[in-house]
Fold each of these.
Amino acid sequence: MKEQLEQLQVEALEEIKVASTQKALNDVRIKYLGKKGPMTEVLRGMGKLSAEERPVVGELANKVRASIQETLEARIEEVKAIELEAKLAAETIDVTLPGRTTFPGNSHLLQQIIDEMEDLFVGLGYTIAEGPEVETDLYNFEMLNLPKDHPARDMQDSFYITDETLLRTHTSPVQARTMLEANGQPIRIICPGKVYRRDEDDATHSHQFMQIEGLVVDESISMADLKGTLEVFVKQLFGESREIRLRPSFFPFTEPSVEVDISCFKCGGKGCNVCKGTGWIEILGGGMVHPHVLEMAGYDSTKMSGFAFGIGVERMAMLKHGVDDIRHFYTNDLRFIEQF
Ligand code: DAH
């Protein structure tokens, strides 16, 4: 029996040594120490031993059992560590690999200017109006005091679709549309949008560009309201220290008409290359809505008056950011677009 036990121990320890997973070790434990295993069998057979032999074999059996148990436990710890290491190695993230960059994008500079203008004017109680880019001769010209064959049409040669339909040459037709819809009621709108002209494209001209139109109609609106409003907008977009200057001008749909200059933001008015030495930069046209335009749209011009203005969005962007060619806005070169 002693030999049997010793043999058992040798076999068990050998099996424990070669087992390399927790599962295999558990199998070894069941095989040698389980209820149906050889140890149990040996212990059961002890009853047949003599009184002298029993304690000797008993002691040996306990030692063998303890040795198997201890070796097993030690090996389990070893295997656990090996398994953990293998798992970690398999799951390693190589942090030296460069990640994939996403490009979040941003709104186009022209859109940024429009957004800024909309925020400002909505804050002043205006609403945003829209009109069609394919417009009729009626709204684009006639309702704005530009009858057929009026010489001022020459400045805005357009792309005609039919004799009576064209791509709008300015956002001013939205004035006429809004006034007709308002049915004699007060109006306060701005209208940003695309306009088209049959121009040669060069550094300052494009066959397609953007404008923002403004229109206010109410009782006793005066030139002072126009000037005050423009001053607020100029200071917001070009800086608190900017001044404005109104010069007489001509538009068929306003009377009186003005062209508006701002004091040069580069030299502050001393004269430089941006303002061509004058200290002033022209930024928009405007005026008091012509009584005839009001009347055509159903307003009583003896009771109601209004002011209007039109701004070129590209021109504002070019002035504000020193962009030297209008074509940069449309060629979608990321090196340009991503600067703003
Ligand atoms: N529509 C004019 C243009 O494109 C700009 C303009 C001038 C608009 C005076 C106005 C205005 O509303 O009052 O040249």
Note: Residues 170, 172, 213, 251, 254, 285-287, 308-310 surround 3,4-dihydroxyphenylalanine (CB under 6 Å).
Amino acid sequence: MYRTHNCGALRESYVGKEVTLAGWVQKSRDKGFIIWIDLRDRYGITQLVFDSERTPKTMMEQARSLGREFVVQVTGTVIERVSKNSDMPTGAIEILVSHLTVLNEALTPPFTIEDNTDGGEDLRMKYRYLDIRRNPVKENLILRHKVTIAVRNYLSNQEFIEVETPYLIKSTPEGARDFVVPSRMNQGQFYALPQSPQTFKQLLMVGGMDKYFQIVKCFRDEDLRADRQPEFTQIDCEMAFVEQKDIINTFEGLTRHLLKEINDVDVAEFPRITYDEAMQRYGNDKPDIRFGMEFGELNEIAQHKEFNVFNSAELVVGIAVPGANTYTRKDIDKLIDWVRRPQVGALGMVYVRCNEDGSFKSSVDKFFDREDLAKWAEITGAKSGDLICVLSGAANKVRGQLSALRMELAERLGLRDPKVFAPLWVVDFPLLEWDEDTERYHAMHHPFTSPKPDQIALLKTDPGAVKANAYDLVLNGNEIGGGSIRIHDKATQAMMFDYLGFTPDEAKEQFGFLMNAFEFGAPPHGGIAFGLDRLVAILGGQETIRDFIAFPKNNSGRDVMIDAPANIDAEQLKELSLILDTPK
Ligand code: ASP
């Protein structure tokens, strides 16, 4: 037996017992006549003691030679510590060692295995197995496990069935590029890795499975934006005989359960707002509602003077930044520089100081009087002590810019408290989205999403205005889930493909299997998928999903530990018919 207990188990009640432990040497302190070693495993740390009075000389020498991260097994007696450490669960005891076996030696780790390590990101990723020995990473993986177990139990109790769907499939267009896998047995042909199990889960509904879920890897070959992973995990779900509100209620239940189970927080009913409202109030379809700073549209009360910047703008819109009248002129100039950075792209910013005495001081005092500014304050909800920031320009652009500013200021003001959870549903997304590059409409969610039934006629006259039965679950400014009620009849699906620019032959080629299935009694159905990595990160009070994935890829999509992707040899390429046989 390698061990009788783990390194987190022993307490004062074990004093006098003989135990065997195994683990890694966290650190040692050598005072000459006495050596203490912290022994670590997944469960905690236990202090070992060797002293010249009670420990044979050879073992003292052996203990002295142990390096950091050596793997050792010890047998000894649990004794009470003279100076107890109340910060450690095992801090009242130590082990007076009688047998010491080195199970394996270790090179000096390239970074310290401490909560605050000296290792940079690259080094930690290269030696991820050492990084995982550190508490923060270990705790994150344990949290992820807890979340997945809670999800499985909850959904299973609601009669959902977990079904696995294939990874080697044909492409599904969900907006990103597919990773492809050459088929050796079918020369010149390729599988695609699923961007999501979308069509399969719909086919499971046709198959009568009724309530499906799967915790599943998805693959998207996107240009990596910050904190995106080419492979990521979804909690993928689908239900038959449901309307939007049924899906929303079911998965609000799941989310509420997770918040309670994992974070012990109770959240009241989640607000539901439409996409249009989200854009109007927050300039963003995934608003962070942990704080206010809602948009105030000022067109009516800001376009009646000689200020041409505003008069020529499609939208004039502002936010009240709480307490920010304390910003100095220099602070405000910096803020203006911030909104003018190419990443944000505003041309400038108008500001109004709301003074404690009820007066205003603005950057446009030449054009606007007290009465005007008081109205701006009223509409943006500004109180004395606040600073109103106003942007103007083309509506869509300016909303994005002000949203970026709102988030930045909230961050600076500490309003994005990771311990506060503010979920909401954003519903009624547009069905289609105009793509400037291809000059075509694309499905905003995916081509299987059903338009709102009363809007189908609008498809002919004003496609961009058609709303879909699509919804997102947003938590603390992140989209953590998204889904839709699906089209379940062949004619509507064919029409949809037509609008999206597929010829009937292309539609048949790529989605014939789904449209055929719709002819064999497809039930009305709909679903949702959660991004598990992000959900776990947020529940863990953090935002970086990499920290919640055991072996993540870096920002260039590489696994720097195993060094992938990598070349394959000519023989393999030939076998896969990726290169032609070269004459010898
Ligand atoms: N398959 C969709 C996605 O990956 C989710 C859904 O519509 O259920 O976003």
Note: The CA atoms of residues 425 and 473 lie 5 Å apart.
